[in-house]
Amino acid sequence: MPNKIIIPPTKNTIITKNQNFISDIQQSSLNSPIKRPLPKINLQTKSDEKTVSNRQTKPIEPVAKKYDFEKQISQKQKRKFGPKLFYAFGVSVFILSFGLNIYSFVINRQAKDEVSEVAAATSSVDEQGVQQGTGSDPSSDKPNQNAFNNYRVAPDRPRYLRVPTKSINARVKELGLAGDGSVDAPWNVHDVGWYNGSIVPGSKNGVSLFLGHISGRTMPGVFKDIANLSAGDIIEVEKGNGEVLKYQVDKVEQYDIDSIDMAKILYEVDQGHQSLRLMTCSGKYDSKTESYGSRAVVYASPVK
């Protein structure tokens, strides 16, 4: 697939040529319930036996059997702490079971989220239900007429791009930067992309840059013929509010991929003027690098 082209640091923008045209739990800690040792009870009883003198002449009254306080306390403690120990054990089992259930839930949820993310990355649809791929591996699913007609954008944004002489009539998708800082590409070979780091068409002076695929894996792309445009050919941009802007082709340039000047393409324009630029891959396709050796750029200016 394509390689990467670095846009000059003046705008801190990168256009990827790693695409067909230019673009390219935390596991919760489960603390085992703290098993606290049962409190030790050290009760000491003192005997109150009186010493009986051997010299005592009076009859010795029978001494009552000593009451075993230790045995009584021990029995009471058993009766007292037995239920508590059972209760504490039950609570510990409940907490451990609850914690394991939470852990299982989090792990399962994380796994489902990861599966969903993978599925979304490999197969997604836009608002009109049209299949989308990625910038480097776009879908070839063509929008039906209903999806095309119901496509909506903000009033000042480009909605459709048409080139009558090449039978181009395409939706315009707004493109930003991909995760690696490069300019993204249309996710469908039938769509045109408008780079939102360039000027909004018709808003002020400067360059508006549109990009499109020359081909996909199974069919030609929307910009397959723009390298063959001629001076004077008309390009139309319809905005979200229905306004139609018309441009006429000034020239078409071919640039070797290793020497392309992105500063010129993105920023060079006569002071006080607007310019529309179309860009796609061109030249010979290298199956080893999966990229084209050149880029075709169409320069156009507003129809006066």
Please give a quick description of this structure.
The chain is α+β, with helices and mostly antiparallel strands and 304 residues long.
Count the helices. How many?
3
Major β-sheet, in short? Answer: 8 strands, mixed, barrel
Strand content: 25-35%
Report the uncertain regions. Answer: 10-67, 114-123
So what's the CATH class of the largest domain?
Answer: Mainly Beta
What's the alpha carbon Rg, rounded to whole Å?
41 Å
CATH superfamily of the largest domain: Sortase
Strand order of the largest sheet: 5-6-8-9-12-13-11-10
Mean pLDDT: 72
Secondary-structure-based class equals: alpha+beta
* H-E order: EEHEEHEEEEEEEHEE
**Can you tell me the overall shape?**
globular
Notes on the protein architecture:
The protein folds into two domains: 5-24 and 135-302, Beta Barrel (Sortase, Chain: A); 70-133. 21% of the residues lie in helices and 26% in strands. It is built from three helices and 13 strands; from the N terminus they run E-E-H-E-E-H-E-E-E-E-E-E-E-H-E-E. The chain has an eight-stranded mixed barrel with strand order 5-6-8-9-12-13-11-10.
